[in-house]
């Protein structure tokens, strides 16, 4: 268990029983491109590293994030989402910080992610953590036909 730098949230491992609580956050953040419950089940079954952020002392779930390790030296941020009323409070930063720690501990020399080209706030967050644009995946988000910007961080 990790405490976020701001002490505003606690970062915990995601378990299957959290899926129901993250679905409204997923729906609000990603709309038509949201993941289904089965997709989250699959991520957990494949032992990808997923986290939740909860507010103490209430335990209210305010965000989640996932990382897929690709040994020997690569990791992919699968998703980061924060409740609308908890955005811009450090929750996303706390989740990303923990994902990067996990990647580093696993020996990843490169961390990659895809982010919607129209999601400037997320792109700024990733850039602040050293992610740089690598390329574009045209129509990556199929439901909306939105392009994805691929970003990479070394080290």
UniProtKB/TrEMBL annotation:
Keyword flag Ribonucleoprotein: yes
InterPro entries to which the protein is assigned, alphabetical: AcTrfase_RimI/Ard1, Acyl_CoA_acyltransferase, Bact_Acetyltransf, GNAT_dom
Domain N-acetyltransferase: 9-155
Catalytic class of the enzyme: transferase
EC number: 2.3.1.266
A Gene Ontology molecular function term of the record: protein-N-terminal-alanine acetyltransferase activity
PANTHER family from the UniProt entry: AMINOALKYLPHOSPHONATE N-ACETYLTRANSFERASE-RELATED-RELATED
Sequence similarity: Belongs to the acetyltransferase family. RimI subfamily.
Protein name in UniProt: [Ribosomal protein bS18]-alanine N-acetyltransferase
Native source organism of the sequence: Plantactinospora siamensis
Name of the gene: rimI
């Amino acid at each position: 268990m990790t405490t976020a730098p701001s002490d505003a949230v606690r970062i915990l491992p995601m378990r299957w029983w959290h899926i129901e609580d993250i679905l409204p956050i997923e729906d609000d953040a990603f709309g038509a491109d949201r993941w289904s419950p089965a997709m989250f089940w699959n991520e957990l079954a494949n032992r990808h590293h997923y986290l939740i952020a909860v507010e103490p002392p209430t335990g209210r779930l305010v965000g989640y994030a996932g990382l897929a390790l690709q040994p020997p030296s690569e990791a992919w941020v699968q998703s980061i989402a924060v409740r609308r009323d908890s955005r811009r409070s450090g929750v996303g930063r706390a989740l990303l910080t923990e994902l990067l720690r996990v990647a580093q501990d696993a020996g990843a020399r490169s961390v990659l992610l895809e982010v919607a080209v129209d999601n400037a706030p997320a792109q700024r967050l990733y850039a602040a953590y050293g992610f740089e644009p690598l390329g574009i995946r045209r129509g990556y988000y199929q439901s909306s036909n939105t392009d994805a910007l691929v970003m990479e961080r070394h080290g």
